[in-house]
Design brief:
The complex is a heterodimer. By secondary structure, chain A is mainly α. Chain A has one domain (about 45-275). Helix content of chain A is about 75%, strand content about 0%. In chain A, the strands form 2 sheets. Chain A has a two-stranded antiparallel sheet. A two-stranded antiparallel sheet of chain A has the order 2-3. The longest helix of chain A is centred in the C-terminal third of the chain and has 34 residues, at about 285-320. Chain A is globular. Chain B is an alpha/beta fold. Chain B folds into 3 domains: about 1-85 and about 170-245, 3-Layer(aba) Sandwich (Rossmann fold), CATH 3.40.50.300; about 250-335 and about 420-495, 3-Layer(aba) Sandwich (Rossmann fold); about 355-420, no CATH class. Helix content of chain B is about 35%, strand content about 25%. In chain B, strand 19 and strand 20 (about 375) form a beta hairpin. Classes of the chains: A mainly alpha, B alpha/beta. At the A-B interface, helix 8, helix 9 and helix 13 of A face helix 2, helix 11, helix 12 and strand 20 of B.
Chain lengths: ~325, ~525
């Protein structure tokens, strides 16, 4: 990818600042410390899942399976702890490994058998939910372990642990995507798969790894969710895949692949979470919240698409040269 | 044709056209007359303002000032639809056909004949209409065939048929031959001559100067948005046009150097792939340029892909410096020092989501990483170095590569393989669709490579170029190498082999007869 410029980040951050400002003014309790912690908690699982979604989207793929994967992973984790009596130090890595393995299955089907990612992960969305329902008779498994919550939701130096997890994982994601060979290969495949292959990039392997990353992210998200609620349920994670994709898109990622920045996905997650939080505090019904999120996605993509055009028109106004009817391609 | 031109009001006329964009005056007081029954060539390097002028004439863009006259009457186009209705048909470089629909559906796209009160498409009429047009043009293409199943050349002809189906009085062709082989170009030109005789005006844009000289009745040369020269046929001369286009005198088009040494570096023996390559064997010497000649579809590109590991070898072997290569994919070939600049820059070469830097380093990322870490600063230095060395436009450093010209894009692609320090460089149609100045730069690069002891496999459908720039030429037919000879012993007619040429002529005669019967 192109070297990151400030302008790339400016749009989403300005949008976030405006939204925070509007919500702060209109909602009395918004600025309370407790509310911020609440937002951080709400955003933690989504933002981690969204890392995986962004990586897959950057390769030009899509992943619809994390929601069902999370349901399955919380149930598997709960079953291992509660029914099989596994210790946390064994059950948690096992849950993450399940996520990675499921991601590998997705990746294998997409990269090596060339089934479109949309189809593979749509099938996963359905099938994994089904598997989650077969564990423990399909009913939630509760009261897993008293240690689970303190392990993940304690504080270090007054900072809530989930907050630290998110920062560390995003730092890792930014580093990987923008400062390693693997990251460059992800962007290259999203930009032009045929050219990537002819440049010596092992396209299948990279694609597979992208889905493994998405699976591990869903695994981490599943463990965090199970820990917070101290339970596993086949209903956990429902629709989180769509929110994660929305966050990536709101942050400016192109679903065609090759364009976007994972840090902006975090901004996208915050935009969505803050809007939801604000509407919640104002006792707006979930139906209206849903509509609001839909409008945000549309608005974000529209602004992104027309950004170049708008700035050209503005510049033309200021410099008094005629505005263009169409972009000046290949004069 | 002089009857039309003298004193009579031209069919179409551009007068004093100006069009500016921020930072550049793309068209600067341009006048062109396009009489009925004439083919007019529009020439100039990339960036000279040709595309803008075409866009203005086809209604895609509006001029800042100036007039467009149709039979002496001023017309204004507020969009492409208006220009079409006025009788202007444009065939762009990029195809506008929809691949999974049939030829007939594509030809009447957007104005399918209806029946039952306009509710249903009259498919029989669609097919009949397509048959009529294809027949008029003497094209033997099945109206029921899907566009994806046609060769690129046939698609180009369908594109022209589609444009003509709209009762055009002026046909604009923007680089119509980039995808065509020599034979198809001949067929296209025959078609255009027949069309001009029926009174259509044609504006023809091409980089292939030799073909323009053969075809056009008059021409205009643009440079930096201005008309630098305009003349009728008597004054057409390739050297003169080239000089005017690039603004400096060049004595030769092909600055060939002979750098061949005795040592054989690459041998291919009995290579066979699932994609047309059948029992191909040849040697490549150090510093040599081996040309692959033959018509489009003969298997030249596929041979290149086999050597590069892009298509799997079913039989045979590729040996580099006496060491047999295990080619499981392009990555293995690249690791061994083989490079491929593919025929299709856009779909197989460039990453449009990156500026020049990442496009250049892509095949050799280890050259810009320190351990696991990417060194962005080093990548930028590499980029700047190649921009200087190859005279790439400086804006390529920050602009995404889809925003730079074709010639600059090709240089970026070649830079990719210079940076990866490949020893065998395969160039598949390296000068296709780029301007004269950039072509010269490519030829000089070939010399630089061979002088440095590297070897080149050159594929080109421009016969003069292939013969002039190669040391030896392997003639490819039906996926086989039928003959390998020193380049100076090869004539253009050898490249279109005897049997195929004969077959082609029979087809052409049949097509002419058919069209006469139909019209």
């Amino acid at each position: 990818m192109k070297r990151s410029t400030l302008a790339e980040f400016l749009g989403p951050i300005v949008a976030l600042v405006i939204i925070v400002g509007v919500v702060a003014v209109t909602t009395p309790n918004f600025l309370a410390t407790a509310n911020f912690q609440n937002i951080a908690l709400q955003a933690a699982v989504l933002s981690i899942v969204a890392i995986g979604s962004t990586v897959v989207i950057l390769t030009g793929g899509i992943d619809l399976s994390p929601g069902s994967m999370i349901a399955l992973i919380t149930m598997a984790l709960a079953a291992m702890i509660k029914l099989d009596g596994w210790g946390l130090m064994l059950a948690i890595p096992a849950a993450l490994a399940i996520g990675g393995a499921l991601g590998a299955v997705n990746g294998f089907l997409v990269a090596y058998l060339r089934i479109p990612a949309f189809i593979v992960t749509l099938a996963g969305l359905s099938a994994l939910k089904g598997i989650a329902l077969t564990i423990g008779g399909g009913t939630p498994i509760v009261s897993l372990s008293p240690n689970l919550e303190t392990l993940f939701y304690g504080q270090v130096l007054g900072i809530p642990l989930p907050f630290i997890y998110v920062l560390v994982l995003y730092a890792l994601a930014v580093f990987t995507l923008n400062h390693t060979k693997f990251g460059r290969e992800i962007y290259a495949i999203g930009g032009n798969e045929a050219a990537a292959r002819l440049s010596g990039i092992k396209v299948k392997r990279v694609r597979l790894l992208a889905f493994v990353i998405a699976g591990v992210c869903a695994g981490i998200g599943g463990v965090l969710l199970a820990a917070r609620l101290n339970s596993g349920s086949p209903n956990y994670g429902t629709l989180i895949e769509l929110q994660a994709i929305a966050a990536a898109v709101v942050g400016g990622a192109s679903l065609a692949g090759g364009r976007g920045h994972v840090f902006n996905t975090l901004i996208g997650v915050l935009i969505i979470t803050v809007v939801q939080n604000g509407l919640n505090l104002n006792a707006v019904s979930p139906a209206v919240q849903s509509i609001a999120i839909g409008l945000i996605i549309l608005l974000a993509v529209t602004l992104d698409l027309w950004r170049g055009h708008l700035s050209r028109i503005l510049r033309a106004q200021f410099t008094r040269t005629p505005a263009l009817a169409t972009p000046a391609k290949g004069l | 044709m002089t009857v039309h031109a003298q004193r009579a009001v031209p069919l179409w006329s551009l007068q004093d056209i100006c069009k500016g964009f921020p930072g550049v005056q793309a068209n600067n007081h341009i006048d062109i007359d396009l009489p009925a029954g004439e083919i007019h060539g529009l020439l100039g390097e990339n960036g000279c303002g040709k595309s803008t002028l075409i866009k203005i004439l086809s209604g895609v863009q509006q001029p800042d000032s100036g007039r467009i006259l149709h039979n002496g009457r001023e017309v204004t186009f507020d969009g492409p639809g208006a220009a079409r209705r006025e009788g202007i048909a444009t065939v762009y470089q990029e195809f506008s056909l929809i691949p999974h629909l049939t030829v007939a559906e594509n030809i009447s796209m957007g104005r399918h004949p209806r029946r039952r009160g306009g509710l249903m498409v009259d498919w029989r009429a669609v097919t009949a209409e397509a048959q009529r047009i294809l027949g008029q043009l003497g094209l033997e293409i099945d109206p029921a065939a899907r566009v994806t199943d046609l060769s690129v050349a046939e698609q180009q002809l369908v594109e022209i048929a589609k444009a003509l189906s709209q009762d055009a009085t002026l046909l604009i062709l923007d680089e119509p031959t980039t995808a065509l082989g020599q034979e198809e170009i001949v067929a296209l030109h025959r078609l255009l001559r027949r069309m001009k005789e029926s009174g259509v005006g044609i504006l023809y844009i091409s980089h292939r100067l030799d073909e323009v000289v053969e075809l056009v009745d008059s021409f205009t040369v643009l440079k930096d948005g201005r008309v630098v020269s305009a003349a009728g046929q008597t004054r057409l001369d390739v050297d003169e046009i080239v000089t005017r286009m690039i603004g400096s005198d060049i004595s030769e088009h092909f600055p060939k150097e002979d750098n061949t040494r005795d040592e054989v570096v690459l041998t291919v023996r009995g290579a066979r792939t699932a994609h047309r390559v059948a029992d191909v064997s040849f040697d490549l010497r150090r510093g040599e340029v081996l040309g692959l000649g033959g018509v489009i579809g003969s298997g030249r590109t596929e041979i290149a892909r086999a050597v590069f590991g892009a298509d799997r070898l079913l039989a045979g072997e590729v040996t580099l410096d006496g060491r047999r290569l295990r080619l499981r994919g392009p990555a293995d070939a690249i690791a061994a020092g083989i490079a491929l600049v593919p025929e299709n820059r856009k779909t197989e070469g460039l990453f449009f989501n990156f500026a020049a830097g990442p496009n250049i380093t892509m095949a050799h990322l280890r050259g810009v990483t320190r351990g696991p870490l990417f060194d962005h600063r080093r990548e930028d230095r590499v980029c700047v170095d190649y921009i200087d060395d190859l005279a790439i436009t400086p804006s390529a450093r920050t602009k995404l590569v889809n925003l730079i010209s074709g010639g600059n894009q090709q240089k970026v692609l070649i830079a990719r393989w210079l940076f990866s320090d490949s020893r065998i460089v395969i160039l598949d149609e390296p000068t296709q669709g780029i301007d004269v100045g950039a072509k010269l730069a490519v030829y000089r690069l070939i010399n630089d490579l061979t002088r440095a002891g590297k070897s080149v496999i050159l594929i080109s459908s421009a016969h003069n170029e292939l013969i002039a720039m190669s040391d030896r030429i392997a003639i490819v037919k039906h996926g086989r190498v039928t003959d390998i000879r020193p380049a100076h012993e090869v004539s253009p007619t050898d490249l279109v082999s005897a049997t195929e040429a004969a077959h082609h002529d029979i087809a052409a005669v049949a097509a002419v007869q058919k069209s006469e019967v139909l019209s």
